[in-house]
Specification:
This protein has about 425 residues and is of the alpha/beta class. The protein folds into 2 domains: about 100 residues, Roll (Urease, subunit C, domain 1); about 290 residues, Alpha-Beta Barrel (TIM Barrel). The radius of gyration is 21 Å and the shape is globular. The termini are far apart.
């Protein structure tokens, strides 16, 4: 497939961009070639598409269900009992809605942890997105459950290759309070053997830290470092209850972290992601929405704005400026993707932003407008892997998805 983008704003200049197959092939002041698709991008800016670093995609089914509760009662009384009732079809339908919602927000990649890899992978492929999907791994310190989880992870890894290059398998040990040390190390070893990433929740709550100290005499990052779990393959979600020593360890081990500001605030984790410390110790960071049961949407615009404002409220007005926040939202390096920039040779994953809307006028600073004033409706066109996923804000089959998933969710939760 080939796409010719005409007269888009790129780095302050009006440029043409030519996409061939799945790569940005050429960027010039003027390009005149035949292309299967030609887009007049006058009054539009071209920007890298967003990377959603931590999701539970199928939890769109739980949007607006069991809100305004503390984290553990919310999980134990509302979420986990209903998740036990989920099947492949429900997870597929919930993931379809998530994919649609993310595309409408300009997201083309998401890092997911949930049950039934195949259901989420099927939805991802259907919508033309990229995803790194981890089969949730929980053993509750039970050897038999650990054996079952290992067997399932091995099986799913083998099956994952059939979904093509846009879908990647990852290991998904849920957290240190739901996964045994032996299983954590199995995940680490399996990931290293097969060059996979490991997706884990880390230091989301103070109670998690207190329990780890009581059990191991160490804080969570110190414990994981002691057992040899941390390395460049690990992507840790949340990471809010940390000391500088722990942040320094994460930097040395090249572990990536995902900031989920809206989920953290809604579930009242009562601490703030230590952005300045992560920056000081050169930790690779990105942003995530978390699941819609704790957000309640998958908007990267909301996530960017709240992330920036939270840091400023906590640390001062110069913390996490707009350009850095946008960089977190598009940081494809966290997932080893050749994307995140509009440059020749990079993957053709990008958004066209409508500049002729009130939120984008005047255009003193593009990144400031994107982070502080824009919203999902400013995204006109979304391209992933050289294919147009949305144009003029329309995604194929979106009405059918909305009707179907709305019905499924109502039937599921009554």
């Amino acid at each position: 497939m080939s796409i010719l983008i005409k007269k888009a704003l790129l780095n302050g200049k009006i440029q043409d961009i030519y996409v061939e197959n799945n790569l940005i092939s050429e960027i010039k002041d003027s390009i005149n070639v035949e292309a299967e698709h030609k887009i007049n991008a006058q009054s539009m800016a071209i920007l890298p598409s967003f990377v959603n670093g931590h999701t539970h995609a199928a939890m769109t089914l739980f949007r607006g269900y069991a809100d305004d509760m503390p984290l553990l009662p919310w999980l134990q009384e509302k979420i986990w009992p209903n998740e036990a009732r989920l099947n492949e079809e429900l997870i597929y339908q919930g993931s379809r809605l998530a994919c649609l919602e993310m595309i409408k927000s300009g997201i083309t990649f998401f890092n997911d942890m949930y049950w039934n890899f195949a259901a989420t992978a099927k939805a991802t492929n259907e919508f033309g997105m990229r995803a790194e999907i981890s089969q949730a791994f929980i053993d509750f310190f039970d050897q038999e459950k650990a054996k079952e989880a290992i067997k399932l992870s091995q099986k799913v890894f083998g099956e994952s290759k059939s979904f093509g290059p846009r879908v990647k398998f990852a290991l998904g040990p849920h957290a240190i309070y739901t996964v045994s040390e032996e299983s954590l190390l199995w995940c680490k070893d399996f990931a290293q053997k097969h060059n996979l990433q490991v997706h884990i929740h880390l230091s989301e709550t103070e109670q998690e830290v207190k329990d780890c100290i009581a059990k191991h005499g160490l804080r969570p990052v110190e414990y994981l470092d002691k057992i040899g779990f941390l390395n460049k393959n690990v992507v840790a979600a949340h990471a809010v209850w940390l000391t500088e020593k722990e942040v320094e360890i994460l930097g040395k081990r090249q572990t990536k972290v995902v900031h989920n500001p809206i989920s953290n605030m809604k579930l009242s984790v009562c601490n703030v992601f230590p952005y300045d410390l992560f920056k000081k110790h050169k930790v690779e960071m990105c942003l995530g929405t978390d699941g819609t049961s704790s957000n309640n949407n998958l908007s990267m615009f909301d996530t960017m704005k709240i992330a920036a404002l939270l840091q400023k409220h906590h640390s001062g007005p110069t913390t996490l400026p707009a350009n850095e926040c946008f960089g977190l939202a598009t940081n494809a390096k966290c997932f080893n993707l050749n994307a995140g920039e509009i440059k020749e040779g990079k993957l053709a994953d990008f958004n066209l932003i409508n500049l002729k809307v009130p939120e984008m006028v005047p255009l003193h600073n593009l990144h400031s407008n994107i982070v502080y004033s824009a919203n999902d409706s400013c995204v006109d066109t979304v391209v992933c892997d050289g294919k147009i996923l949305m144009k003029n804000r329309k995604v194929e089959n979106e009405e059918e998805v909305l009707d179907k998933v709305g019905q499924v969710a109502r039937e599921f939760l009554g």
